[in-house]
Amino acid sequence: MSSVLVTGASGFVGQALCTQMLRQGWHVKAALRTPHQFSPDTNSGIKPVTVGQINDQTDWAAALVDVDVVIHLAARVHVMKDKAVDPLAAFLKVNLYGTSHLAQQAALAGVKRFVYVSSVKVNGEETHGQHSYTEQDKPAPLDPYGISKWEAEQALQRIAQDTGLEVVVVRPPLVYGPGVKGNFLSLLNTVNKGIPMPLAGMHNARSLVYIGNLVSAMMTCATHPKAAGQTYLVRDGEDVSTTLLVKKIALALGRKNRSFYFPPSLLRTAAAVLGRSAQIDKLLGSLRVNDAKLRDELDWVPPHTLEQGLCATAAWYHQWLH
Q1: Rounded to whole angstroms, what are the CA distances from 241 to 95, 197, 202?
Q2: 111: domain range?
Q3: Catalytic residue among 145, 176, 210, 232, which?
């Protein structure tokens, strides 16, 4: 049996990852900011380790004892309205310096492999036409979050060269599933309430990844011999327009799809007036990733379809409401 340390273990992805790895027979350590972030009733068998804030001073010694693999999920995450005086410095403190410090400590502790969950934002914010992002594309992060993730990736490659630590980078697009928050939860709420949305007739294409598929990919990256030193993009396998996504969500929720057509150019104008351009860009723009490298090199196949993922998310959402 192998031992894994999962950072960000109390988060949306972290909880799902810890649970699945425990089921697969791993010894799971959960790195937590505070000791009360995990419920012992629902996480029996997972060993919590309190590490406090993540930065270049974090003490990882106890957490890394007898650990074979680190899966690093913890990060200062992207927010729409950042209140930090210097957002880039705030992101770098956690996402670059905190990550580098952990990797160096992991190498010293004899950890074999370090799986870093980065972001498709390292590639950029939008694709055009039939183009899909690949691992070979020149990184083009545009916001402080994406920049901090790209700088962390580069720092990890340097540490890998210096120490022999096997680094694997995973760049997911939008993750959804039971427990999802943010824009996807807002979309679920809007569709469930039957609020009409001007989202019919859109021809964009966006890659998504269901949390169960992301967990499967991370676990593959943690163990596959060929993954060492590689970077992988991941997705469900089916890119969808915003129009089709809303239709599929409505079907999964058992609600009527109340989308209607409204000219995209007028939508963008209205959004600009309301200061909501970033949100509209996500709804109207395309962001496609090519996951052929992950499938070909690691023989990985997503265990869940988009429909299965949406149905599981809808089932959780109905329970969450009640």
Answers
A1: 31, 14, 6
A2: 3-176+208-235+288-303
A3: 145
